[in-house]
Amino acid sequence: xxxKQLLPLIGALFALYIIWGSTYFAISIGVESWPPMMxxxxxxxxxxxxxxxxxxxxxxxxxxxxxxLNAALIGVLLLAIGNGFVTIAEHQRVAxxxxxxMVATVPLFALCFSYLFGIKTRKLEWLGIAIGLAGIVLxxxxxxLSGNPWGAILILIGSLSWAFGSVYGxxxxxxxxxxxxxxxxxxxxxxxMCGSVLSGERLTQMPTLSGFLAVAYLAVFGSLIAINxxxxxxxxxxxxxxxxxxxxxxxxxxxxxxHFGGESLSSLEWLALGVIIFAVVLVTLGKTLFPVxxxxxxxxxxx
Length: 303
Fold this sequence. Notes:
Blueprint: H1 3-30, H2 36-57, H3 65-91, H4 96-103, H5 106-116, H6 123-140, H7 149-169, H8 179-198, H9 209-236, H10 239-242, H11 249-260, H12 267-289, H13 298-302
Helix pairs in contact: 1-4, 1-9, 1-11, 2-3, 2-8, 2-9, 3-7, 3-8, 4-11, 5-6, 5-7, 6-12, 8-9
């Protein structure tokens, strides 16, 4: 691989590994002074407006109706539901590290949805799914999530939505380049702001400086940079590489939450973290680590 191709790849992976891993901690700071759907809506709407304005000013055209609507749907599935529900769960005091561990199951659910779309799944990958589900059971059997079942359900629904959106999005026509991300963020921002209004969210007082900084970080780094990095990866590398962030993000999130957020994980939750990460590695890298042996040819059989 040439250096010109390698540098964007390294930058994109760094954005997903470190920046997306840190967004869980940023969300936990933001929801201390913002209503959750309002904060998520402001995050995606501002990022979408900025990106769309940049694209239009630099000569890009709005996409045709079909890919535009497709991108809007994917934005709702991935960002409004997938990320929005995680934001609501963290507002309900689910620890940021625990939220990231739950979201790490996305590749497992994506594999299940891929099977429904007719993509073949190996026994090794089904084993990874079974191990991952066991990790979820462990995670919910004690500690942070056992006393917050609604938070766990919200994150689970969000993870399912993100997984389905990722698989479905790879099979439909989407706008080219960064236009897809701009439409997705705008659609998610609008839906989340409507949800905020309909649910009666109100700012009882002005958000703190840390709250504003958290939203700014989420909009610029977590949305503008990281989401476009993700779109770059799914178009240029294998799904295993593109989704490898799923077993790095929890580690980053847990380290930030425990060192700076005063969060703590029980021994059972640390075990669950290890089990889920192992399951995700098995699913995403199984084809590479344990390739299927090609059937022997007649010449080979004669030797």
